[in-house]
């Protein structure tokens, strides 16, 4: 089997894969790496966003696989942002919504599978 056939087989297998929805993992994710990961990617991403959208007073931000919303909410605190987060896990989204309320940041969070979402969000 050549590399192309292996790639196609992998794609088919992933499409049928039942993904763990991380509901029970959301608290452990935040405690173990959530803040650290968001901090690592925030500065370079924020610089790029600021440079690219420097003339806009407010930007729309879609965070796919947003987890517990840490990055999206950090961005919303740093710059006026209409933030939308989507994640497969109800547990992750619940924590994201709680965090947003706790820190007073407006953002919309949705439970959904990006492979099957409609454009109605």
Summary tags:
single chain, 121 residues, alpha/beta, Rossmann fold, 4 helices, 53% helix, 15% strand
Structural summary, described in words:
By secondary structure, the protein is α/β, with parallel strands linked by helices. A 3-stranded parallel beta sheet has the order 1-2-3, covered by helices on one side. The chain is globular and about 40 Å long. Helices cover 53% and strands 15% of the residues. Residues 6-10 have low confidence and may be disordered. The protein has helices spanning 3-16, 26-52, 70-78, 90-103; strands spanning 59-64, 81-87, 107-111. The chain has one domain (18-111): Rossmann fold (3-Layer(aba) Sandwich), CATH 3.40.50.150.
Helix content: 40-55%
**Rounded radius of gyration (Å):** 17 Å
CATH class: Alpha Beta
Class from secondary-structure proportions: alpha/beta
Strand content: 5-15%
Number of strands: 3
CATH superfamily (homologous) name: Vaccinia Virus protein VP39
**N- to C-terminal distance:** 41 Å
Q: Which topology does CATH recognise? A: Rossmann fold
Low-confidence stretches: 6-10
Strand order of the largest sheet: 1-2-3
Task: Identify the CATH architecture.
Answer: 3-Layer(aba) Sandwich
Helices and strands, in order, run as HHEHEHE
Tell me the major beta sheet: 3 strands, parallel
Shape: globular
Total helical elements: 4
- Average residue-wise pLDDT: 80
Can I get a quick summary?
The protein is α/β, with parallel strands linked by helices and 121 residues long.
Which helices and strands, and how do they pair?
Elements: H1 3-16, H2 26-52, E1 59-64, H3 70-78, E2 81-87, H4 90-103, E3 107-111
Parallel strand pairs: 1-2, 2-3
């Amino acid at each position: 089997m050549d590399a192309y056939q292996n790639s196609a087989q992998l794609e088919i297998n992933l499409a049928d894969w039942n993904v763990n929805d991380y509901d029970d993992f959301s608290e452990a994710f935040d405690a173990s790496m959530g803040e650290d990961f968001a901090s690592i990617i925030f500065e370079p991403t924020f610089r790029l966003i600021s440079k690219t959208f420097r003339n806009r007073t407010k930007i729309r931000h879609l965070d796919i696989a947003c987890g517990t919303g840490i990055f999206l909410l950090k961005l919303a605190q740093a710059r006026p942002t209409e933030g939308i987060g989507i994640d497969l896990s109800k547990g992750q989204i619940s924590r994201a919504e709680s965090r947003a309320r706790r820190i007073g940041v407006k953002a919309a969070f949705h439970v959904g599978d990006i492979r099957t979402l409609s454009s109605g969000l």
